Amino acid sequence: MASSQTNHLSQLRALAQQHLQEIESEKAEEQAQQSQAEADIERYSKISSFGRKKLANDKSRLQDNEQYLPSDSHEQSTSDVDSKKQRFRPFQDILFRLRWDPKLDIEDYVVGYLERSEGMKEMPASNWIRDFSEEEWIPMHRRWKDR
């Protein structure tokens, strides 16, 4: 019985070693194919040899200038300022997402806008999205909030 177990173990080891060899050969094949693809891309790229040299020079200049970048403490303070100055998403993008994102219900949203003769007004976003006639159309720049 012990000999049959050792026989099974040796068969499993042989199978595992064969599998590992197959994996290594597949990896080597993939690397060869990738390097061939990169060589083909380089050869057939539309960048002229002059353009490639200029690109390489630009990269080396960029690496040389990295020594002049600010320290980490300065980067953190500027990133804090940048995060405070983030721009709002364009209203057209918001409307597009409300209209087509299945996770959002357009009935849950209200759009506030400036009506020139009546002041600030609100309307459901679903009404904003529907087509208006020329008389009742409200320009996007007069929208002042959406919630």
Describe this structure in words.
This protein is mainly α and 147 residues long. The protein has 2 domains: 2-66; 91-146, no CATH class. 60% of the residues lie in helices and 11% in strands. The chain is built from 5 helices and 3 strands. It has helices spanning 2-44, 49-65, 72-84, 91-100, 125-129, and strands at residues 110-115, 119-124, 143-146. A 3-stranded antiparallel beta sheet has the order 2-1-3. The radius of gyration is 32 Å and the shape is elongated. The N and C termini lie far apart (75 Å). The mean pLDDT is 71. Residues 22-43, 55-84 are annotated as: Disordered. This is MJ1316 RNA cyclic group end recognition domain-containing protein.
Q: Could you report the average pLDDT, rounded to the nearest whole number? A: 71
State Rg.
32 Å
Structural class estimated from helices and strands: mainly alpha
The tally of domains stands at 2
Q: Distance N terminus to C terminus?
A: 75 Å
Order of secondary-structure elements: HHHHEEHE
Extended strand count:
3
Regions with little confidence, pLDDT below 50 for 5+ residues: none
β-strand percent reads 5-15%
The strand order across the widest sheet is 2-1-3
Count up the helices. 5
Task: Give helix % range.
Answer: 55-70%
Characterize the overall form.
elongated
Largest sheet properties:
3 strands, antiparallel
